[in-house]
## 1
Amino acid sequence: MDIKKIYMDANALLEGHFKLSSGNHSQFYLQSAKVLENPRTAKLLADELAKQIRASGVKIDTVCAPALGGLIAGFALAQALDCRYIFAERVDGKMSIRRGFEVTQGERVLLCEDIITTGGSAMEAGEVVKSLGGEIVAVAALANRGFCKRENSDVTTKPNCKLPQNIPFFALADFTFEIHSPDNCPLCKDGNEAIKPGSRGN
Ligand code: ZN
């Protein structure tokens, strides 16, 4: 399965000059929502991810996704794995689990994102799950930005990766494009202004 082609075909791999949520700049931006707007594509990707997870032998009781980014990918993956699905959301900046969702003692939870950059949001959701008695047994995402090592890839873990190294991380592809700090960005030096994805209709 050529994930990059699927992202390109869906106009989900944007080229330009983007200001990322981290404050850094990049020539490329991944907009997973554009890939997932087609439920058939979402199912295709989730089925492929589920295949990897099943082959690994890791037993999953529940998929938990951090909102908003992981909601659709997480739901599609839970459907493909035929397991329970819950989500975590930020309330006043703090990740929490609401909506009457319960986590039982020892419940085996996989955290699912659309894209893992450093894994920060996923692990924040993971801390909440653990505080309720759940166990984080795996992490999954459609795409990996190349800062964390995923199963079946040669990409190595970078110092800013926040995922624990003792559980598997499953993703369909690595998108390892460069990011630049704003004071050392070649695109800024060319005189272009960086835009925040989403601010101009993207
Ligand atoms: Zn720039």
## 2
Amino acid sequence: MKFFVDTADLAEIEEIAATGLLDGVTTNPSLILKSGRPMVDVIRDITAVVPGPVSAEVTATKADKMIEEGRFLAAIASNVTVKLPLTWDGLRACKVLTGEGFLVNVTLCFSANQALLAAKAGATFISPFIGRLDDLGLDGMKLIDDIRTIYDNYDELETEILAASIRTVNHVQQAALAGADVSTVPPAILKKLAEHPLTDKGLEQFLSDWAKTGQSIL
Ligand code: E4P
């Protein structure tokens, strides 16, 4: 599974990229607002740090304007992935932009039929929003399962499933079990993935016993 980080905060991205485990980044207009910086600067800075796909979202709602914005954003760097909303206009724009060779992430996906349409429109990534479905008492992970099944039924559908709106470490594990290709994870949750109290306790015991041996490796 590939790990993307879901933030527009450059310092957080640099910290996680330094692990060598980061495959890409997703941003959205809300995350750009939170960064307090101009979008183009943010995207340019992120693409300089992360060689993998960096999603930058259009804000137009009509296909023609989405295409124009998409071309503009894609010109920032070769790894910019144009993020389009899952509307009919977004799907039209997806078809055109992927036809021109651009990477496209179709976002705000809440149903398997939407995901099927995005794949037919040639999307590079489809972003089903797990947490927002769970917030409504629905089953976000079932959506990942359903999309996986549908995509696997048809060899010609090559769109990658990008599990989004992840709120817990369990979401990451369940998305991996369900066969999502990518998880985009908020930095705080990404850091928690490596943590376990028994790891901390075990390490404390080993180091304490090691100190008693009086030895040092180097
Ligand atoms: C994905 O690309 C989105 O930016 C993100 O995962 C949305 O998450 P949220 O529902 O926590 O806002």
## 3
Amino acid sequence: MKGKKLIAVAAGAVMAFTLAACSGSGAGDDSSADATTSAAPAESNGGDAAMEKGTIGVAMPTQTSERWIADGDAVKKGLEAEGYTVDLQFAGDDIPTQSQQIDSMITNGSQLLIVAAIDGTALSGQLEAAAAAGIPVIAYDRLIRDTPNVDYYVTFDNYKVGVQQATSLLVGLGILNEDGSEGDAEGPFNIELFAGSLDDNNAFFFFNGAIDTLQPYIDSGVLVVPSGQTEIEQVATLRWAQETAQKRMEDLLTANYASETLNGVLSPYDGISRGILTALSNAGYGPTIADGMPVVTGQDAEIASVKLINDDVQFATIFKDTRKLAAQAVVGALSFLDGAEPEANDTTTYDNGVKVVPSYLLDSDIVYKDNITSLLVDSGYWTADEVASGVAE
Ligand code: BGC
């Protein structure tokens, strides 16, 4: 099986130069392709592989968040430009669906897998099969845990993202200035904390970076958490779901803010931020920060939230340039396919419970209203029209 695959790759490599222009059409956003998979195509694909460079499986968690759609599309385009066929699948945030999609990618003869896991601990069986078939695995954005069979990890400096989220909360409250210097505000300020999904390793990095930054202010009484909920297990949001966050914010307001005013909310992701803002708005806060909407943070620079920042409703978000992440995943994939090891710039931080996974970390930036243009528009991430409308064109 393994030998056959390698021969197919070699034959494909010879022909790819002439055929590259033919590949890449038609696959589109084939998120429904999983419905057609079965165990049978493994053999027939061996023949197809000789006609092209080969297929790469790309597993993304969900299409409900626009970043994963952009990530999937960018990785796909990057690999297609190199002559590969890409099997791109989204799993609707359903763990069995993602496991089954990865099973199919392996049986269908993928040369390499790029996986953004829903549950970072749920893929050990699939990855064992990948390793047995000699298929390299790249963890995309989210670490895959509890398995030796993950070869490379491309992500952002996730602890730093958490520090940036907390920093933006402190800036919004006036405790710090944007340049990092001390602000004039002394507090005390009432805040509440939200974290991401506990099955996503990133949620811990974001929260740890944030709480390490906020803790001194909590200890000194500048920040107060009236609910008392400061442990990640208490503030987590399963699957990062907006409605779950909205419900928790409503419950927090009912239980703790009958006679208190909320000043700020640490939110780890723009979808969660929008759920929080909906709850706050329904409770009579706002509509804008100038009118008393609490300072709400975010992550991903989703267009709906960038508009809210532009409109003075959400205070900040974190911009992680997914184009750069996708490009690094492609670079890593090409190294493996050339029989080389991809470059890592961090070989200590990301222990997945079995081994430290060689990682490539990218930088992120805090987006405030006053730097939307320089960070997001000038870089071509969103257009000025999209920022104004809140809708991706
Ligand atoms: C990603 C974030 C994203 C979150 C929810 C995390 O793993 O790093 O960028 O906001 O998942 O999709």
## 4
Amino acid sequence: MSQLTISSQLQVMGVINTTPDSFSDGGKFDSIEKAFAGARQMIAAGADILDIGGESTRPGSLPVGPQQELARTIPLIQAIRQVSDIPISIDTNKVVVMRAAVDAGANIINSIWALQLEDSLQVAAELSVPVCLMHMQGSPETMQHKPSYDDIVGEVLGFLRARIDAALDAGIAEHNIIIDPGFGFGKTLEHNLILLKSLPEFRKLGAPVLVGMSRKGMIGAILDKPADQRLYGSLSVAVMAAMLGADILRVHDVAETVDALAMVGALREVEA
Ligand code: 7PM
């Protein structure tokens, strides 16, 4: 099994969605084929990590069963492993999917629930792979109804600090912990912008910071544009996040983001 070492360089994580929102059941094979083609393109475009998810977590979405999630993700991970050693992250909250994915060659567990469900802390510790602990207020079904905080930065930081401690207590190695403020997960536009501006605070927790803002509602709200017209907005916030200290950028448009972040990388390297 290949082991991922969390790098100090900026990394681009390409999002591979296998949820056949627009496919009927008969289209399942078709959607795996499409996801595999997308993965190959992202690898060619310079992705550092692929994030594979089989459960939609967009606002208002409903949970899917384990069989469906396994059927969408495991064959895809196996197929990618036939052609590439690229680190693969599995975006799941089910321990059965975590185990099967790592068994199939996945190297990172991405948990929008910060490993709070089932015995996922213990399972992740046992699997001994890096984990991404994300903040969310509420659950995907209801999180955007009325997000509310007294102190957005303090509360998200406090939550992530507590989950880091829980992960360490469960036996997850410190060097295997990644944190994520969870843009769009129970946050208003203002909350998201404050979190973006406050990214340097998150760095102080001592773990690599993953950021996912690509094509999200916060961009749509500012530009008044649908998801398929948010590329320039997405690139802009990716650059801002990188300048403010993000380590891993979770994005849909890999080729474009790789170029944009190469410019940030060059600036980081130069002495001035
Ligand atoms: C609406 C909201 C539509 C969210 C789609 C999404 C993140 C994630 C997702 C994130 C981590 C999407 C998402 N977002 N995992 N999974 N961080 N760690 O853009 O921000 O695909 S789902």
